[in-house]
Structures are given as C-alpha cells and as structure tokens.
Amino acid sequence: MTVSAQVDNQAVLTPEVEANRKADYPVHPLFLNRWSSRAFEEKEVTHETLYTILEAARWAPSSSNLQPWRFVVAQTEEQKQKFQSFIKPNNQLWTKHAPVLLLILSNKFRQDGEPSGAHAFDAGAAWASIAFQANLLGLATRAVGGYDREKAREVLQVPAEYELHAVIALGYRGAPETLAEDFQQRELPNGRRALSESIIEGSF
C-alpha cells in the first residue's frame, strides 16, 4: 500500500515529493514533504520564526530529561563567516546562501559527572524536531557533516564536555538554478529503501 497525495483534509504532498517519494504505509505527509535541499532564498528568517523552530527542539524526547542539546546560532554576516571558516569548501558553495546556520552540540556528561549514554541520541531527536517544525513553517533544512570539528571547536570556543554533531543550514527553499550545476541535478527529494529491509523481527 502506498500513501496517497492526501492523508487528511489539511495536508498534501508537494508536487516534487509526489513525483519522487512513495511510502510503503500511510504516514502523515509531513514526513515525506521534509527533504534536505541545498538551495536557499535570500530571505530573512525572523527571530520569532527561528525561535519557534528551536522551541520545538526544546520539547524533543530526552533521557532523564537532561536535555543535553545546545545550539550555536549564526545569523549575522560576521557569525556566518565564522562558520564558513570551518565548513569544507564544497559545502561552502551553498551554505553561504543560507540565512541561518546552527551547530548542534550535546553535553557528554550527566549532572553527577558520569558519562551520558544518550546525549547523541537525544541531540538527534532535537535535530528531527528542528527539521519538521521548519517544514511546517515553510522553511527548509539540511544537516552538514562536512566540516572541521576541531577548528569549529576552536573558533566557537566550545568546551571539551560538548560533542559537536552537525551544522544545520536553515532558510526558505530557493530555486535549484541558484546552485552549481552538480548540485542542481541532486536538488530533488530522495527515496528510501523498503521498510522491510530495515526491520529485524525478534533477532538477527
């Protein structure tokens, strides 16, 4: 069974998603409509919009309610230039157009000083919340792993107890034509392997 273009009366799949993504089971269109683009409009993201997105991350699931996530936010040109100094050159080609860049971190330790086994897991939940709330507000996001973590730690003065995860580019989706040709060809929602290939019933 595949999900139709309309699961309820309020939400539909966007045309590019309808053409490129088919669900094995009927999920809400939010999960299909969210995809990671590289093209961004030169349009400001207001303080209220950005903080609404981060508010969603605040309510992500959290082991023992430790909320280990932190977000380093870059919106001014000076702040974004700092980020560009540690983002790898191929990713600079498009991240330089994003109106907001975020670095997601997580505290590796519990309040008693013991290592936290769930800090990265929880940071991932916060990232998902950012991505989905942004999509609900008509914005796009893309997580960037291609950056120099040690340089980022130095430039942003990140304390040793925090692990660096991904840089998130955030803004309003732009036209693919604004990207370099190689990127233009990839500016489409991608697919997923069949659900059955990810499920192990009982044990391996």
TrEMBL record:
The main enzyme category here is oxidoreductase
Under Gene Ontology molecular function, one entry of this record is: 3-hydroxypropionate dehydrogenase (NADP+) activity
| Keywords, in A-Z order | Oxidoreductase
Q: Specify the Nitroreductase domain's residue ranges.
A: 33-87, 88-172
List the InterPro entries hit by this protein, alphabetically: Nitroreductase, Nitroreductase-like
Query: Which CDD domains does this chain map to?
Result: TdsD-like (cd02138)
Task: State which Enzyme Commission number(s) the record gives.
Answer: 1.1.1.298
Which PANTHER family does the record match to this protein? NAD(P)H NITROREDUCTASE YDGI-RELATED, NADH DEHYDROGENASE_NAD(P)H NITROREDUCTASE XCC3605-RELATED
Q: Which family does it belong to?
A: Belongs to the nitroreductase family.
Tell me what this protein is called.
Answer: Malonic semialdehyde reductase RutE
Query: Its gene?
Result: rutE_2
